[in-house]
Amino acid sequence: MEISVLKNSGEDTGRKITLSDDIFGIEPNDHAIYLDVKQYLANQRQGTHKSKERNEIAGSTKKIKRQKGTGTARAGSIKSPIFRGGGRVFGPQPRDYSFKLNKKLKSLARKSALAYKAKDNGLVVLEDINFESPKTKDFVKVLNGLSVADKKTLLVLPDSANKNVVLSGRNVKNAKITTADSLNTYDVLNADSLLISESSIEKLENLLK
After folding, report:
1. pLDDT tens digits for range 67-83
2. Which of 58, 80, 105, 142 suits 206 as a labelling partner, its CA being 20 to 30 A distant?
3. What would the CATH number be for the domain defined by 2-46+99-208?
């Protein structure tokens, strides 16, 4: 699969790059994508939710009324879940929501997500971006040149060495910057436009082969 390489201004460089069919041209596996996205979202959960059960409530253990003769139901503790301020029955407890997935399955999920982007023309290959200093307006200028300023975009860099690009784009609404080795299925699918720098293509192909 061949795709044109664009300048940061959005103009065609006249060059084309060949994308590996083993990554960008596979038949997407929807179930692998589902599992990888499910794991990503589960791993974001803190799991610190907590409610007190009756043994954790501060209060007297004295029997609040006599057993019989009141005309109402018997009650032995003010901590009972049926009373206001009592403990909660089977309430949420701290837990870890994360789970593990096979490396090959995660790799297949990322390949499938990239294949969907390539198939839907949501993938753009850019010449390598390099800013001399961190300037948000320079990053916005790139997005405007590519006509994606009003869309959710994900820019993939080969590594985090060029901090000026990261600093320039971190406060831009609907824009996210990541590196080839940190790319995940959720971010790829969540973006309307996937912008990949030319140097990142080779790194992605080496990581996912």
Report:
1. 999 999 999 999 999 99
2. 142
3. 3.40.1370.10
